[in-house]
DNA sequence: AGTCTTCGCGCG
DNA sequence: AAAGCGCGCGAAGACT
């Protein structure tokens, strides 16, 4: 191993790399550039290796970062390395993530380097030095060895996957890597929580929770059910209480076979008891329990935990991780908190509740957002070259067409019944996208299998190409064990591919490809604006699968809106050139997430 | 005391 | 042969 402690020696090594590809790994004194330094950089490209200690170099890593502007740096978890390059004033350094290369070939997932080295190379990594003190002036041989080894393993993993990649895989790889700067922007910006408002909201939920708890305790004692939050205790209690025939038909949980305590099951049972035994306290009990569980969900998932995260940050902003291609299909996942599961405005037990209203723009600013409307049906139409489906998406109304068949006559969207029918009809098209059969659709739409078959037949006749696309994908997966996606990547479908996944993955992936391009374009657009002194305070702050949210100065809001609309439209055309863009996106400006 | 599984449920 | 997709999180309970 070549230990480098001077800038000239680093320059000599970099000339050996000669602008080619080389694995790179940092050891840093903290996890964020704001409160730490890059101590070591390990480098390895198969022919040459080096370990750079920046401690003795005047100016440290920051003084050397620009030397990496040429070359392609193979890393694991590109967002981490790129953050340090950005902090050092070199945002353009090419960090190429070996994990994203793997995802371009196999489909998405979430894993650590150690796991991949074990699964893909069959080697075990010793990570005991990972959390050691990288600020110590005198690093141990073991630390140096560990640091160097990471670059070697990263390189070998890269070779493993690079050798299995075709030209199209490389396009998907590039797409994932290109998303990183936009993701860093979102993760650093975070979303501002109106803590006072949210505090009041929690107070309202708590009052509801207490009243429901009181109603439950009026009927059930602690001897019957010690812990009201325990589904298994409720299952035991009801199993003792109810008649055998009721127990026999009660839905069960999948693994343990307990009585299901889903809200829907409880409410159905309550309604049935109300008919069979009017005035029976069991009706009140089951309804109160369903209410209690609902409000408890809100309190535990969207209450104090969000408030606590906001209070923990000096600017009252909530910062999540957006994990690129963490889902098998390539979609983002989001965690810590998961901002992609914040409830939409709805009625919580008769009262309007809006969690999204607690997410606000800062003083003098606005939130700007667009989303793609019906993106999955659109991309299905384009992937399957189904002109009828595309026409209905662009000019007509797919859901109303299906609703008319269900109703047996044309429906009027302006009436409440018409609206309801249309909403129900959405289930049919989603069922197709999800690869559903008639039985699954029947359950979901609460109708008979015969009716469900009728709906599917209609769909299959009117949109025959889109319907057949599912079977084409199943055939491809059965033959190759992979599905080739619109961005060039492939998804490994296992040894026994199944229709539901084969039907859905390429569609969900295509929607992600469009969003990926949108984020890449929008980040580039905003960066270009900033160079001209425009949109200086605009940040991308979130994406929720088919939507982007920016926060911007009030004065910049309307132009930000136009930029976003254009970027999202252009992104769609990147993936589907020539596709019609009418009614593709809808969005607006607001002071909170709820009023966009 | 920490880790894992199961269930249920929020989102697209 | 049967099959509605993809996530993350909180709580309970089992296990180590």
Task: Describe the structure concisely for a colleague.
The chain is of the alpha+beta class and 596 residues long. The protein contains 22 helices and 19 strands. The structure holds a DNA duplex (12 and 16 nucleotides).
List the topology elements.
Elements (H helix, E strand, L loop, with lengths): L2 E2 L2 H11 L3 E8 L9 E7 L4 E5 L18 E4 L2 H10 L6 E4 H9 L6 H9 L19 H22 L4 H12 L1 H10 L1 E3 L1 H25 L11 H11 L2 H6 L13 H14 L4 H22 L1 H9 L4 E2 L2 E3 L9 E3 L10 E3 L2 E3 L5 E2 L4 E8 L2 H9 L3 H8 L3 H10 L8 H18 L4 H8 L3 H14 L1 H17 L1 E3 L5 E3 L6 H33 L7 E5 L3 E7 L3 H19 L9 E6 L6
Parallel strand pairs: 1-4, 2-5, 5-6
Antiparallel strand pairs: 2-3, 3-4, 7-8, 7-13, 9-10, 11-12, 14-18, 14-19, 15-16, 17-18
Helix pairs in contact: 2-7, 3-5, 3-6, 4-5, 7-21, 8-12, 8-13, 11-12, 12-13, 14-15, 14-21, 16-17, 17-18, 18-19, 19-20, 20-21, 21-22
The protein binds a DNA duplex (12 and 16 nucleotides) through α9, α12, β10, α17 and α18.
Shape: globular
Portion in strands? 5-15%
Radius of gyration: 28 Å
Write down the overall mean pLDDT.
95
Structure annotation, total helices? 22
The biggest beta sheet reads: 6 strands, mixed
Residue windows where pLDDT falls under 50 for at least 5 positions: none
Measured between the Cα atoms of the first and last residue, the distance is 56 Å
**How helix-rich are the residues, as a percent range?**
40-55%
Number of strands: 19
Cross-sheet strand order for the largest sheet? 1-4-3-2-5-6
Structural class: alpha+beta
Q: Can you describe what's shown?
A:
- This protein has 596 residues and is of the alpha+beta class.
- The protein is built from 22 helices and 19 strands.
- α16 (398-407) packs across α17 (416-433), α20 packs across α21 (499-531) and α21 (499-531) packs across α22.
- The model has no long low-confidence stretch (mean pLDDT 95).
- The structure holds a DNA duplex (12 and 16 nucleotides).
